[in-house]
Amino acid sequence: MNDLRRSIRIALPSKGLLAEGSRKLLADVGFTIYNPNPRQYRAQIPNLPGIEVIFQRPGDIVVSVRDGSVDFGITGRDVYLENRGANGNILELHSKLGFGKCTLNVIVPESWETTNHIEHLQQRQAELGRPLRIATKFPNLTQASLSKLHNLEFQLIQAEGTLEIAPTVGYADIIVDLVSTGTTLRDNRLKCLSGGEIVFSEACLIANKGRLKTHSETLATATQLLEFVGAHLRANDRLAIFANVRGRSPENIAQLVFQQETISGLQGPTISQVITQQDEKWFAVHLIVRKKLLHQAIREIRKIGGSGVVVSPVSYIFEEEPKEVSDMMSALEN
């Protein structure tokens, strides 16, 4: 289905951590979902009039975007890669939305004491004298990854539900499954193989490529989503610092700033003179730094003579030409 006359649709996960993260991300960028009846699988975004929200399972979201019945979707990147198909109908607009982080791993019993690296699977298979039986919900990704191992023979068992029990009950030798904290694996006496990470995943934003090419309103919505989501994510790990610094001139202050490791800002510091009744010259310096570097930044500001330091969170960092938008436009030309 690809009716150009229908409303623009975005599919979101119906439940779980991906659902919570999707709602929060959209609310953080001003696109709060209006869903007065939680039993309904449709909703609206007041700040995006004409956009219809549909709630689906993560795997169904990929299928809906792929066949064109939905324009946009937020789902796990692992699910997207597994179900995107080979026809090129889906475009990944943003691969790192900052939540739902996990890895798809090759997992074996702890009792396999000599099997600790992905390259050890060939030896284990030789010892068993038959192909390894692998239970997974991700047959496409598993097949593509493990086929690269020389001389490894394996049989895929596509499974649903809880996979951790498979090696214990014996219907599979190993599993390929998602891992976040690792607690469930330890509880079931399982371990991840070193080098066995198939996909590093988190939530991603996807779109139907055909709709973007043929429907100008859909393309405009994609640009708006990428502008605000990208600006918010760029700002998410940054802080704004304001400080007063003694100096002879803005150029003098800038030279001191550039001699430091962390406080040079995005393109450089913003510096303006402070009007005081003192004989000394003071300048106000505005900097943007990463949150994890705050302590080092404060030390550097004090080193150059800064005082009265004020630190504030940053909500958005808009670029002249957002990379996400330019990447989308380039992909649509192909």
Largest sheet: 6 strands, mixed
With strands numbered from the N-terminus, the spatial order across the biggest sheet is 2-3-1-4-11-5
Quick check: average pLDDT? 93
- Classify the beta-strand content into a percent band: 25-35%
Number of strands: 15
Order of helices and strands: EHEEHEHEEHEHEHEHEEHHEHEEHEH
**Helix/strand-derived class?**
alpha/beta
What low-confidence regions span 5 or more consecutive residues with pLDDT below 50?
none
- CA radius of gyration: 26 Å
Helix content: 25-40%
Mass-distribution shape:
globular
- Spatial gap, N to C terminus: 22 Å
Number of separate helices: 12
Layout of SSEs?
Layout: E1 8-13, H1 17-28, E2 42-44, E3 51-56, H2 58-67, E4 72-76, H3 77-83, E5 90-94, E6 102-109, H4 121-128, E7 132-136, H5 139-146, E8 154-158, H6 166-169, E9 174-179, H7 183-187, E10 190-201, E11 203-208, H8 209-214, H9 216-236, E12 238-246, H10 250-258, E13 270-274, E14 282-290, H11 294-303, E15 306-313, H12 323-332
Parallel strand pairs: 1-3, 1-4, 7-8, 7-9
Antiparallel strand pairs: 2-3, 4-11, 5-11, 6-9, 6-10, 12-14, 12-15, 13-14
What does this structure look like?
Strands 2-3-1-4-11-5 form a 6-stranded mixed β-sheet, sandwiched between helices. The longest helix is centred in the last third of the chain and has 21 residues, at 216-236. 31% of the residues are buried. By secondary structure, it is an alpha/beta fold. The two termini are 22 Å apart. It is built from 12 helices and 15 strands. A hairpin with a 7-residue loop joins strand 13 (270-274) and strand 14. It has helices at residues 17-28, 58-67, 77-83, 121-128, 139-146, 166-169, 183-187, 209-214, 216-236, 250-258, 294-303, 323-332, and strands at residues 8-13, 42-44, 51-56, 72-76, 90-94, 102-109, 132-136, 154-158, 174-179, 190-201, 203-208, 238-246, 270-274, 282-290, 306-313.
